[in-house]
Amino acid sequence: MQNNYVIFKIPSLSTNESFARAAVAAFCANLNPTIDEIIEIKTAVSEAVTNAIIHGYENTVGEIQIECKIKGQLVEIIVEDYGSGIVNVEMAREPLYTTKPELERSGMGFAVMETYMDEVVVLSEKDIGTKVIMRKTISERKK
């Protein structure tokens, strides 16, 4: 399998979340993932993009960059915003922790990403932005 990648940018509008998940899923389709693997990838991307929209940019519109790389059967997805950043990444990764309870946010975004992906790395700096790097190995199946 040849290595491949795609990079695209979207405004941080909630209507773009579904486009981001569909675009990444379509790009990963060449690996012949199972339906469960596609659902897991789409859900993780959805959580990362939603976090960027809700927490990174709050009530403003900024830019979200999504990069998807394929190396053999490994998919690496990077969702990056240039918003407010996360003051305490470890606390933000705790299940049920939310800074937006008034929006009925569950605080499960990172937990969901960690459940569905093999690896999740969160890099963030206050007032600089956040980069979420997610990796998943797709099972090899006959095409």
TrEMBL record:
InterPro entries: Anti-sigma-factor_SerPK, Anti-sigma_F, HATPase_C_sf, HATPase_dom. One of its GO terms (biological process) is sporulation resulting in formation of a cellular spore. Transmembrane segments: none annotated. Pfam families: HATPase_c_2. This is Anti-sigma F factor. Residues 36-140 form the Histidine kinase/HSP90-like ATPase domain. It comes from the Bacteria. It comes from Sedimentibacter hydroxybenzoicus DSM 7310. PANTHER family: ANTI-SIGMA-F FACTOR RSBW, ANTI-SIGMA-F FACTOR RSBW-RELATED. Signal peptide: none annotated. Its EC number is 2.7.11.1. Keywords: ATP-binding, Kinase, Nucleotide-binding, Serine/threonine-protein kinase, Sporulation, Transferase. The keyword Transferase applies. GO terms for molecular function: ATP binding; protein serine/threonine kinase activity; sigma factor antagonist activity.
